[in-house]
Design goal:
Radius of gyration: 23 Å
Number of strands: 11
Largest sheet: 5 strands, antiparallel
Helix content: 40-55%
Strand order of the largest sheet: 5-9-8-7-6
Distance between the termini: 42 Å
Shape: globular
């Protein structure tokens, strides 16, 4: 979008927050870059230039605006709506892969050479993987400086910097302030002992009922819970584990993170945002769905529905198999037994969480006869776990959606419903569709939509590429706990 100067200028002049994260405005006279909704008086058109990323602005020598804080805007919705190599690379960078494995590790995961990855990111984003990772480290550092009492050396290493000197230089370059000056300007929120409290921004509107209702209704005891108006769950992270407490608020999501290693902060934030689909563009999605006269009343009634996703793709795939052809309560029971037998225990002084969900390697040796499942379902589960454990099946933020679908369909016991629900909630495909789901078919009949899968799929072509969001609106017609916030 940053190449469409006229459209960008209109967004800046109207201070349209819907475009925050889509592009950034750099002011040639002040050498400052802003989000489109910056509250200051817009500069003259001839003094504006536009960039696709904060990293590109920083690389061009611009510094972040101190009023609108463009580094804290929601991420571009493009990276969660596409499956090409650039989008997959951006999801991996957001998950901290460059900090942990370097650019060669990023390229290896994507199956390209380092030079090809750098060339494609530069062409589309104006910055290479190192610059993009640096911008993310700077944002994390600012968050820790302004919201925690951590010593600066601890902040530096928690944000992913290799040295305090590099940390100091980066903060000065990006924000035109020293770390101590940033701290003096910040307003630290009250901190729970050993936890980090922060706000997760999103593009309005956001309807929390189906989002948090679904997560709470399907919560696995010991791994997830709804407590005091918040969804809480354990997180398995690269350097340790953590507990996330997510509370819906009118203009943000309250997020409290308790981590065993602060180096996991960036990854934990990224996974929480992905879980709640916070980088979506609800206005664009809802406008497309409203073009269908039968779907429009559902969208108008409760706009801004998100797709409840997951923090761990392998975990969700296992849970999808456990949930085949059984009720929500039965699926929770099966998963809870698996967690109790094979999960890693954790301490949770603030609630009732007890375990991490077991990793595929921890489930690879489970005894099928110990599972209270039909024999065919046991085979499906053990085959899935073995494929995930040995790496022959890879499910992650970097997955090619169509290839992952084909690999899943090749496993015994996997049909279209299981594959599509994994594509929708684990892989993040916004166009995943469930025409055979009983709740969806019931909603379709009530609305006058075709009820047979083939005819229904053909009718839903006008909803593309947002059919996963249409599924949320159709599900919401049913009086089911997944559609309501718990009392």
């Amino acid at each position: 979008m940053h190449t469409d100067t006229e459209r960008c200028v209109r967004a800046v002049r109207s201070k349209d927050s819907r475009f925050d994260g889509w592009f950034f405005t750099a002011v040639l006279t002040t050498r400052i870059y802003c989000r489109p909704s910056c509250p200051v008086v817009p500069p003259k058109v001839e003094n504006m230039t536009f960039y696709p990323s904060a990293a590109a602005c920083q690389q061009a020598g611009f510094r972040a605006c101190k009023r609108c804080r463009p580094d804290t805007s929601p991420g571009s919705p493009e990276w969660n709506a596409r499956a090409d190599v650039v989008a997959r690379a951006m999801r991996l960078i957001g998950d901290g892969v460059v900090d942990r494995e370097g650019v060669p590790g990023l390229a290896a995961r994507l199956g390209y050479s380092t030079r090809q990855i750098e060339r494609q990111l530069l062409a589309e984003l104006g910055a290479g993987p190192l610059a993009l990772a640096r911008a993310q480290r700077a944002q994390t550092a600012r968050l820790l400086i302004e919201t925690t009492p951590l010593a600066m050396a601890d902040v530096a290493f928690a944000a992913g910097f290799s040295s305090v000197r590099t940390f100091n230089d980066t903060v000065r370059d990006v924000f035109a302030l020293s770390p101590s000056e940033l701290r003096s300007r910040g307003k630290r929120a009250p901190q729970t002992s050993g936890a980090i409290s922060l706000r997760l921004p999103f593009r309005a509107p956001l309807n929390p009922t189906n989002l948090f209702g679904h997560l709470a209704a399907t919560a696995v005891p010991g791994v997830e819970e709804w407590r005091d108006g918040a969804y809480r769950r354990t997180l398995t992270l690269p350097y340790g584990h953590g507990i996330a407490t997510l509370t819906p608020q009118p203009d943000h999501i309250g997020c409290l993170l308790s981590l065993t290693d602060l180096r996991d902060l960036t990854i934990a934030i990224s996974r929480c945002r992905r879980l709640l689909d916070l980088d979506a563009d609800p206005v664009a999605i809802d406008d497309q769905l409203r073009t269908d006269p039968l779907l429009a009343p559902l969208v108008d009634k409760a706009p801004g529905r998100r797709v409840p996703r997951t923090t761990d793709t392998a975990e969700f795939a296992v849970r999808a198999v456990l949930g085949q052809q059984v009720s929500t309560a039965a699926a929770r029971t099966h998963a809870a037994r698996l967690v109790t037998a094979h999960g890693t225990p954790v301490d949770d002084p603030a609630g009732g969480l007890t375990h991490l969900f077991p990793a595929p390697a921890g489930l690879a040796a489970l005894d099928p006869e110990a599972l209270a499942l039909p024999r065919s379902r046991r085979t499906t589960l053990t085959t899935l776990v073995a494929s995930l454990a040995d790496g022959s099946l890879k499910l992650g933020v970097d997955s090619d959606w169509e290839r992952a679908r084909a690999q899943l369909m090749a496993l015994p016991g996997f049909g279209p419903w299981t594959v599509e629900v994994i594509a929708m909630r684990a892989l993040g495909d916004p166009d995943a569709f469930l025409p055979t789901d009983l709740g969806i078919r019931r909603a379709a009949r009530e609305l006058g939509l075709p009820s047979t899968p083939a005819a229904f799929t053909a009718r839903a072509a006008t909803w593309r590429p947002w059919r996963a969001y249409a599924v949320q609106y159709l599900w919401a017609t049913d009086d089911h706990p997944i559609n309501n916030l718990p009392v």
